[in-house]
Every structure is written in structure tokens, then in C-alpha cells.
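pls read this protein.

:::
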Amino acid sequence: MKIFHLVVVVMSLMLVGGCSGAGKTASGPPREVPVVQATEADTILVCLNSNEKLSRKDFVAAYKTAKDEASRAENADKLRLVCLGLNQQASYKQFKEGLEVLSRYIKEHPAATPALQGLMTLMQRIDREKIVKWAQSSKRMDEKEGLEAENRELQERNEMLERSAAQDQVRIKELQQQIEQLKNIESIIKNRER
């Protein structure tokens, strides 16, 4: 308990000392604290982080609202639409819409930060990866369907061979019976000749 109190006192002193010395250097006038303005890329990334855990229902509503508002030419709403296009709930179509909105936004704002250009590069890379994944998935589906068709064909052939074998067995029995009948007839003929 004493350690806890000691830690609280030390932390309090650090906070008070840190606050009273804010903006001052050791030997001179107070220094200016730089003001950092959020960039468009920051806006998109903060939005992405804050909307990460949206339910599907909330995402659909937020996306519809952002899409409606983005059509009114508000920059922040366009950036929100890009953000929601990157959300895990977004469909591929919504992702592509976000990429297109970002591309138009950069063209409309030639002074767009390099970070925004970098974000677009990342989105284009994600898009290529999705296309590659889709192509691989499509190829696997084609292969799977081909194997399933081949398997069905083999099963049908196997069933046909089993039916043919059963018919052959019936025919063999019939022939064996005919042979037995012929043997009996031959035996009767031999007995008459004696």
C-alpha cells in the first residue's frame, strides 16, 4: 500500500512539474508548441479506426448516409465514404466506389498530401490482391467443378459396369443351365444308343 501511495505521489509531482514547465526551455523564453493540422489521410485513417467495430446494420446505414452526403460535394463526406469503403463490412463494390471517390478527390484537390497519394496506392494494391485472390478462387472453383464432374462420370461408369457385371452373371447362369441341359440330352442320347 505504501508503494502505491509513493507511485501516486511521484506521478503527481511529474504531472505538476511537466505542466508548469510546458513550453519553456531550460534557459530562455517559452518555446512555441507546433500546431499540427490533420491531413485528409489522417481523417480517413481516424475514421477507419473509429468505425472498425460497426455492426453490419450500422455499417449499411452509415454507408448510405455517407454516399448521399458525398454526392453534395462536401469534402469530409467524400473522405468518410472512402473510409467506409475500407471497412471490413464493405463489399467489393463499396471498396471500388471508395477507391474511385479517392481518385476523383485527388484530381479535384491537386494540393492533396503525399499521404493521400500513398493511401490511394495502398488501396490499389489491396484491389490487385483481391483480384488475384478472386482469380485463384475462381480457378479452384473451376478445378473443383471439373473434379466433381469427373467423379460423377466415374460413378456413372462404375454403376454401368456393375449393372453389366450383374447382367453377365445372369447370362453365365443361363449358359451354365443350357450346358447342363445339353449334357443331360447327350447323356440321354448315349443311353438310348446302348
